[in-house]
Specification:
Blueprint lengths: L10 E6 L14 E4 L2 E4 L2 E4 L5 H8 L4 E4 L3 H13 L4 E6 L7 H9 L7 E5 L4 H16 L4 H14 L1 E5 L4 H5 L5 H10 L2 E7 L2 E8 L2 H14 L6 E9 L4 H11 L5 E7 L2 H7 L4 E9 L1
Parallel strand pairs: 1-2, 1-6, 6-7, 11-12
Antiparallel strand pairs: 3-4, 3-5, 8-9, 8-13, 9-10, 11-13
Helix pairs in contact: 1-10, 2-3, 4-5, 8-9
Length: 289
């Protein structure tokens, strides 16, 4: 048997709700999502149980924070998967610099027999994290060994990119992910901030003068990374209530490559709590054909 094929392993892919996973793709059936937690006005909500619009409305007057799933919640997800016939899992978490999700999943893995669960820090978030998760799930559908699924997902995590634009940087500034000076500058000038996210760090980029200009810059980032050899683009359209901008970005990305896989990645309430409303962006990686 090929060394990359499993020997009786049936692997599920587990992630946290910072990833934006579509429900209408075949590999989605091999993905389990553990909700992160949102604390709003002193009340704890599991991600998905409160509408993002309500989070935005209440955030102006109530304290908002988020927290990672506990090790016990990851263990429950693994146990449920084993009840469904899976023998183990690859866990892909949001960046460990953004959340304690990786540490919690790693702690949970320590309670299980060695090799049952492998835990990967994606180094990213949102739709970019979702791209890593879905690639792992595709490998799992092929019956690939757990070690090889982890290796392939790790390679995508190294290659994946995320660039996005926001109406302002106020929410990211509150969370300490961009300097307050940058947030104030974006408000005072009326420009469209652009940022990249990778290796757990938010990096402010040269801003655009308009929304369409920001989308052009995002697409240019994607094109700049395209390999010279034929390749397929895997892309996630990030959207925290951006309206027609997300649809416009999707149309443009759809024209980049004859071979492409694109999905819409609306933000969960936890992600909206970090970025605020109006974000539109792109997560992507290129796969050689």
């Amino acid at each position: 048997m090929d060394e990359h094929r499993s020997h009786g392993e049936q692997t599920v892919v587990i992630t946290d709700s910072a990833a934006s996973i579509p429900t209408d793709v075949p590999e989605g059936r091999l993905v389990r999502v553990v909700p992160m937690n949102l604390v709003l006005g002193g009340t704890v909500y599991a991600d998905g149980t409160i509408d993002p619009d309500e989070v935005v409305r209440r955030a102006s007057t109530e304290r908002v924070s988020t927290s990672a799933p506990s090790p016990g919640e990851y263990l429950k997800a693994v146990d449920a998967a084993r009840d469904d016939g899976f023998t183990g899992a690859v866990v892909v978490t949001v960046s460990s610099k953004m959340s304690g999700s990786f540490e919690a999943a790693h702690a949970a893995a320590g309670y299980l027999p060695e090799g049952t669960v492998r835990v990967l820090d994606s180094g990213t978030a949102a739709g970019a994290q979702g791209l890593v998760v879905l690639h792992a799930a595709r490998r799992a559908m092929l019956g690939t060994s757990r070690a090889e699924i982890f290796r392939c997902a790790s390679a995508v995590a190294r290659d994946v990119n995320l660039t996005a634009t926001l109406p302002d940087l106020d929410y990211l500034s509150r969370s300490g992910r961009v300097p307050g000076l940058a947030a104030r500058a974006s408000r005072s000038t009326g420009i469209r901030p652009i940022f990249s996210f990778g290796n757990g760090n938010v990096r402010p980029r040269r801003p655009a003068l308009s929304g369409p200009g920001a989308l052009d810059r995002i697409v240019a980032d994607c094109v700049r990374t395209r390999p010279e050899r034929p390749a397929r683009v895997h892309a996630a359209i990030l959207d925290s209530g951006s309206g027609p901008e997300a649809a416009s970005l999707a149309e443009t990305v759809d024209e980049l490559s004859p071979a492409r896989r694109i999905f819409h990645a609306p933000f969960s309430s936890v992600m909206v709590a970090h970025t605020g409303p109006g974000l539109v962006g792109l997560g992507w990686w290129w796969e050689m054909l």
